[in-house]
Amino acid sequence: MPNVTLGASLALYALVQMFGWSMPAWPSGHWAFNPLAWQLLAVLGAWMIIEGERVRPWLTSRTVLVPAALYLIFSLVIALSWRIKPLEALIPQGLTKLAYPLDKSNLDPLRLLHFLALAVVAVWFVPPNRQALTSAVMRGAILCGKHSLPIFCLGVLLTLASLLALLDISEGLAMQITLSVGGVLMMIVAATLLNLVKITPRLQPTVALAAGVRVPPAAWGTVGWRPLEAFRRGLRELGWAGGRNPVINCWFVDRQSHRVYQVFGLADGLVRPKADVIAASPKPAARNATATIPSAEYGF
To answer: Where are the alpha helices (DSSP H) in the chain?
Structure first.
């Protein structure tokens, strides 16, 4: 129930803003990022994955883009006023009192709006099929995003090491640039190595995988769970359930073709678990791999 979950997350966020709710923290009791407030960003991300196909046309409309761009310009003026004295004099005192303090720990609503505005502009100007995303620099950034948690942990350690280097060796500009560039390269290398790790699937899975794609020609990678969930619901109505009965194991690759199946070895991988039925697109890929397992063709 993604909409119900998002509603509960928004309600919890609102209660945090109204009553200052938090959780115990050691040793001072202060959270740099109050999890009761910042959970909203994680839930929003999960909700977008599930409901993205419905929401994307609305996000890419001019009705949403114009207010988002205006809010980002407004935020830029406020941020520049911190350093430019003549600009600071132009900001009304009432607006200053309304905006400050911008509470980071509890994810101030103005900060949340800024994040959402950035997301809208990013969706508008960076479509998923943009050619620039395939460049070497962006591939490194994408790999770091795919392994965000271990890369974040590595970044914490690199930050500590860099701080010690600045204190013990030099605080000069050259050292700062060297540490920054070196840290970024180390994170990209770590993400690349993590991406090369092969995880062999179990031959008899006991849990249905949350996989299923509907990929429009102009937006490769868009994930749609609704067809798969409807299929699972039909199986449950017939008495089949994950964990107690044989399960559907879903594999997919982008830009399906006969050669893709052979290059990635998916044809052999489909046969190895000794399935009762194989549904593949295109069908000849499965038919060429086995003559004993019934196969059917389906399309996106």
So the answer is: 2-19, 35-59, 62-81, 85-90, 93-99, 109-125, 136-146, 148-168, 173-196, 226-237, 258-263, 266-271, 283-289
